[in-house]
Each structure stands twice: as structure tokens, then as C-alpha cells.
Fold:
Amino acid sequence: MTDRAPRARRAPAAWLAAGLLAPHQACSPEGGGAAGVTPSSSTWRLVGEHAIGAPRPASHPSFAGALDLLGADCTTAAVRLGAAPPPCRVELWRRQDGTAPDALFLVVGSASELDVEGRAILRPTRWTRLGPTLGDCLGDPLDLPPAQDPAGFRGLVVTAGEPRWMLSFSGANRCALSGWILLSAADEGVDVERLEVDGLPWRAGGVERARERLRFWVREQLQRQIQVLGPEERIVGFEALVHDPDPAAGAILEGVAAGGGPGALDAAAALERRARRTPEPP
Structure:
């Protein structure tokens, strides 16, 4: 059985590659709904992976047949998923109780195929129901470790034949995410019921706190990297500062505009837009 979902348009990767913000996955509500983990759920662990052209080194050893699945320069995987390579990767997942054949997860760009328990699921590795804030906190939702949390991990859970990715966080990440979320591997389902930020549930103050932390993180990264960012990355970063209500955001733009170096004109234009959007104090 094969489930095919419409493929999402490939989002620009320049800002994410610069280590700042991930592209917004969509302007939709902050978190959707999905069923929770039950006692009958099966859990799977990552035991092997092989990547070509990936921005990070593999966190697990390769496995027999991995290179054959990908092909030279990702060509085999690209033809299979109808996507443009590279990068590409394949992951080997093993059920904890060892009662099922190993599962394979193949990714080329934003296209993917998960083969688990006799079911092949093809869909983009994007979840619009994450919303812009959580999407920016995560970056690539399936990257390892999740949200660049050194103590975070990604697991695979199958309940009643429905596979979901479990992303677990320790709080040591750009938005202080802790707890875990579930992403449906077959559709747009997102479960954030166990997600917190600084002890606040995601839907009860957590998303607002995450937004504050994210803005602080962006300001910090811009100050550190402004001299090495390319024009496109600078423009996207400046636009984030336009919408940041903290006075520190305006101060960063003022400093770049006054410095006369790379991005000075863009920073000055961003300051003008910020002035139009931010009301003067009484």
C-alpha cells in the first residue's frame, strides 16, 4: 500500500544554511492534533544511517545495502522519489522488541519514503500544522538531534498501524523546548500536548515564551554573524528584526546602518519599516 501526499514547494534554504532561521512551514495555527502514544504502541530505534551531501555528519554507522539504496550522488533515491539530489540519506530503524522486519526511511531534499510494517508512505518532510514559531524553533523537523538539542532524540512510534515521529527535547535548545511532540509520518498531524517551554504548556503560554526566546536567539546570531552573511540571509534577518518589538532589535539595525559596511542600506530600509510598524511610546 502506498500513500501519496501532494509535494510541498521547496523552500529557500539560504537562511537555514546560515544557521539562523528556518523557512516558515506555513501560516497556520500553532500546533495541530494527533492521537497520543498508547500501551499497544510499538517503538522503534535508529540503528544505522548513510548520507550523501548532508550538512551534518551521520550520528549512526552505515549499514549493508545503504549505498545501493541511495546510488552514486543520490541518483537512485532521486529517481525513486522524483526529487532533485543531493542531499539524500537513508535510515535503518529497528523495532525495540525485534518482532518485525527493520524499517527504512529514505529522504531526498524534502521528499521522503518510510517503509514500516509492510506499508510504504511517501510525503514531504514538512508539517504545516507546526506553525511558524515551532517551525522556526525546530528548523528541519527531522534533523538529528531535534532542534539542535544535544540531549534530544528522534524516535519512531507505530500505533494501530499509524507511524509517527517522536521528537524529544531537554530544554537545551534555542527555544527552551522540553518534553516531546509527535509528527504523523502519513499526514499533517501534529501533537504538542506534552511540549513545554520554561515549564509552560505550549498552548498555555509556551508558544509566546518560545517566540520571545527565538527573537533573542535571532538577535544574538545576527550580531555574531552579520559580517559573514550573504545579502539574502541579511535581508531575511533584518526582516525578522522589523517585527521584533524588543528595542534591542532596533539597536542592531541602527548599528549596522551607521557602520556603512555590508548591509548598511538594507538595515536603514528595515529601520524605516520598523518605525512604521512600531508605535512611538506615549
About this structure: Residues 1-35 have pLDDT under 50 and may be disordered. The CA atoms of residues 174 and 217 lie 6 Å apart. Residues 202-225 form the longest helix (24 residues). The radius of gyration is 20 Å.
